[in-house]
Each structure stands twice: as structure tokens, then as C-alpha cells.
Write a structure and sequence with these properties.
The protein has about 425 residues and is an alpha+beta fold. About 65% of the residues lie in helices and about 10% in strands. The radius of gyration is 32 Å and the shape is elongated.
């Protein structure tokens, strides 16, 4: 029964850990954790709860590549605190409802049951609170400073309080039942736990508001640039129209004079002027007019203008009007921005920098093609979407990993990569929603 009790506790720990982190659980480490907690429980008894934090913290940080120490610690301290608190709460409820004697007679069995009940309790709490813990896993300074830091400190204090209460009840009082003071503190910690969840939920909502505000500001800025570019093209055409009229008058005078050399000179001057003025703006704004969503249009204009300003030869193809893309617009803007940023960053290092962009509407899907010139190098296509992997050096491989995470959210979306001696091409296909 001792082994059963420890196994159910380990199941509880892994369940809580997975519910908040969504980190893949490896069977080998589940077996290792059972052996680990069997040993620590046997030698440390109730104080084996000390070992929950280092085990899950190291698993998140070392085995699963959680690069932020504060995030790995959050997963570990939250798992430890929620598991122990909800288990103690279940025990207290059973005693309060008069099942103390039965509990004492069948301690190992009841201990196993009260280790499994918190899994369901925690699942229901998360469903009701609707907290999106995925947003905690971000490199945002806002999340680090305003969420992870205060929550880690508060959870650590609460967890130390639980450890002190265990020491007080088991070592000092030498009792298997909790005192009234301990029960009061336990219920206060339950309220504190709900307060922490509310705090996490509010901070995540604040983060999303900040992201939306930044996206709106960027969209407004990019849209202004787009409008200014269109106005500039209009003024260019208007100015050329005026010059063109004067040149035609000069051409007429040359024709009337019968001076063939002067006719030819004026004719070439008109052609050269037309070519200079009308091809000076290399981005075809008319193509972007076929993008229906203002946010997508503005980010495309901004990124492609940035490429042009870096002396990259830019080509755009958007032949059909695209009204709707079956992907959350913020996700599509993030995905497009990352792909274009990578393309610009690579193209600008080449001898003949080029960037080709196409948005193609087919029968049941939208296809986005981003092709850039690149310097031939050894690169493993199968690894470019891994976190941390990059051909550009240490700590640079986060963009395409984020692209893969976005694409994995949609069953109707895929990405293909093609590489040859001259171009690096990314093809994103977004099918119609079923």
C-alpha cells in the first residue's frame, strides 16, 4: 500500500504539471520519478514534499528546453503547491465530514484516493477560471516582471508555510490530525490559491490588451505609410503628366521644324524621364490593393518597404482579391512578420539581394510564398523549426520555432521549405475551414 500511495502522488504531480505547462511527459521520467519519490518518501516521510520543486524544475529546464529559469521554477513551485494544498484540503474535508476514523483505519487507501481527487478538482478550477497558461510561456518582459516574479515569490512563501505546518503537526504535535489553527490557515491558503489564479488571469488579460494595443498602433502606423506611398505615387504621376504635356509641345515643335535629330533627342528625353519617374517606386502598390484585411495589408507594406530601403530587389504577386484568410488575424500577422523578417535578414547579406513575395488564392486554400536570395550554407531543414536551432549563431533560433507553434494550432495549415543554390523558399498553405 505504501507503493500505491507514492504512485498516486506521482500521478498527481505529473497531472498538475501537465495541466499548466502542456510539456510532453516522457514515460522514462515517470518511472524515474516513481523511484525517486519512493526513496525520498521512505527516508524523509512527510518532508519528501521538499523534493517536488527540484525534480520538476530540472525536468522543465533541462529535459524539455524551457529556457527561462523563472518559468521552469513557476511550473515546479505551482505543481508542488497546488498538489500538496489540494491534497491537504481533500484530507481536511473528509475529516470535517466525520470520516476521520475510517480514514485512520485505511490510511494508505484513503491517502491514495485523496491524491487522485485533486487532479479532478484542479482540472475543474482551470476550466471554470479559463486561464490560458500557454501565455505564460513567452519571452515577454511584461510576463517575466509582472506575472512570474510576484507569483513565484507568493507561491514560495505559501509553500514554506505548508512545510512549516507539516513540521508543526508531525514533529512538534506528533499528531496525524490537524489542529484548528492549521485548518484555519489551510482554508486561508485555499482562498490565497484562488486569489493567485485570479491574479494570473488578470495579468494574462493585461498582456493581451497590451499586445492588441501595440498591434493596433503598428497597423495605424503602417497604414499611414501605405497612404503616404500612394499619395507619393499620385503626385509622381501628376507631375509626370504635367512634364509630359510640355514634352509633347517640344516634340511638336521639333516635328514642325523638320529637324530629325532634334525630334529623336526630344523623343529619347521623354522615354528616359518616364522610365525614371514611373519605375522609381519598385514596390507595386496596386498588388497590395488586392489584400482585403487592413492589418495584413499594412504589415506587408511595412515589411516590403523595409526590404526596399535595405536595397533589396522586391517582387510582389497578388493577382486576385483576397478577402478572407482562415486563420486568426493576429496569428497570421505574427507568422508573416517572422517569415519576412528572416527573409530580409538573410537576403541583405547576399551579393544580389532579392525578395519575392506571392499571395495566391486557389480553389480551397490561400498559399503564401516567400522566397529570398541566400548564401549557400550547411543547414538541416528537418531542424530549422526546433527551438534554439539557427544557422546564424547561438540564441537566434526562435522565429521559425514560433512559426511552427502557430501553424500547429490549425489543422488546415502547413508549411514547406525548399532550398537550392540561389533561393530559400517558404510555402505556407492555409486551407478553407471545414
Amino acid at each position: 500500500m505504501f507503493v500505491l500511495s507514492v504512485v498516486t502522488q506521482v500521478i498527481l504531480y505529473w497531472s498538475i504539471f501537465y495541466q499548466i505547462s502542456k510539456i510532453k511527459i516522457k514515460p522514462l521520467f515517470v518511472v524515474i520519478s516513481v523511484a525517486y519519490f519512493l526513496a525520498t518518501t521512505y527516508f524523509l516521510d512527510a518532508f519528501s514534499i521538499f523534493d517536488i520543486i527540484p525534480f520538476f524544475g530540472m525536468y522543465a529546464y533541462c529535459m524539455e528546453g524551457v529556457k527561462q529559469k523563472s518559468l521552469a521554477y513557476f511550473y515546479a513551485i505551482y505543481t508542488a503547491f497546488a498538489s500538496v494544498l489540494l491534497t491537504n484540503f481533500s484530507d481536511a474535508i473528509l475529516y470535517e465530514f466525520g470520516m476521520g476514523n475510517f480514514y485512520d483505519k485505511h490510511f494508505m487507501l484513503m491517502d491514495s484516493i485523496t491524491s487522485l481527487v485533486p487532479i479532478f478538482i484542479h482540472y475543474v478550477i482551470l476550466k471554470i477560471s479559463r486561464i490560458d497558461f500557454d501565455q505564460v510561456d513567452t519571452n515577454s518582459p511584461f510576463i517575466k516582471k509582472n506575472l512570474l516574479l510576484p507569483v513565484n515569490i507568493i507561491l514560495s512563501i505559501f509553500y514554506l508555510l505548508i512545510i512549516f505546518l507539516s513540521y508543526y503537526e508531525i514533529i512538534l504535535r506528533k499528531s496525524s490530525t490537524a489542529s484548528e489553527y492549521t485548518k484555519y490557515i489551510l482554508f486561508l491558503e485555499i482562498f490565497g490559491f484562488f486569489a493567485i489564479l485570479a491574479f494570473i488571469g488578470n495579468r494574462i488579460k493585461d498582456y493581451w490588451r497590451m499586445q492588441i494595443d501595440e498591434a493596433r498602433e503598428t497597423q495605424y502606423h503602417n497604414l499611414n505609410l501605405y497612404i503616404n506611398e500612394v499619395e507619393g505615387m499620385y503626385q509622381t504621376i501628376r507631375g509626370f503628366k504635367h512634364d509630359y504635356s510640355n514634352m509633347l509641345i517640344s516634340l511638336k515643335q521639333s516635328v514642325d521644324s523638320g529637324d530629325i535629330c532634334q525630334v529623336q533627342e526630344t523623343y529619347e528625353e521623354i522615354l528616359n524621364s518616364a522610365n525614371l519617374k514611373l519605375t522609381g517606386r519598385t514596390i507595386n502598390i496596386a498588388e497590395l490593393a488586392n489584400v482585403g484585411d487592413p492589418a495584413v495589408k499594412s504589415v506587408l507594406f511595412w515589411k516590403l518597404t523595409e526590404a526596399r530601403q535595405k536595397h533589396i530587389e522586391v517582387s510582389i504577386e497578388i493577382k486576385k482579391y483576397i478577402e478572407k484568410i482562415d486563420m486568426d488575424i493576429l496569428d497570421f500577422v505574427r507568422l508573416t512578420s517572422i517569415i519576412l523578417d528572416n527573409a530580409i535578414e538573410e537576403a541583405v547579406t547576399t551579393v544580389n539581394p532579392k525578395l519575392n513575395f506571392a499571395l495566391i488564392e486557389e480553389e480551397h486554400e490561400i498559399v503564401m510564398v516567400v522566397q529570398n536570395s541566400w548564401n549557400v550554407k550547411n543547414i538541416a531543414i528537418s531542424r530549422i523549426f526546433e527551438e534554439g536551432y539557427s544557422s546564424k549563431g547561438e540564441g537566434r533560433g526562435t522565429g521559425l520555432f514560433n512559426v511552427r507553434q502557430i501553424i500547429n494550432l490549425y489543422d488546415n495549415t502547413s508549411i514547406d521549405t525548399e532550398i537550392d543554390n540561389h533561393y530559400f523558399t517558404q510555402i505556407i498553405s492555409i486551407g478553407d475551414e471545414i
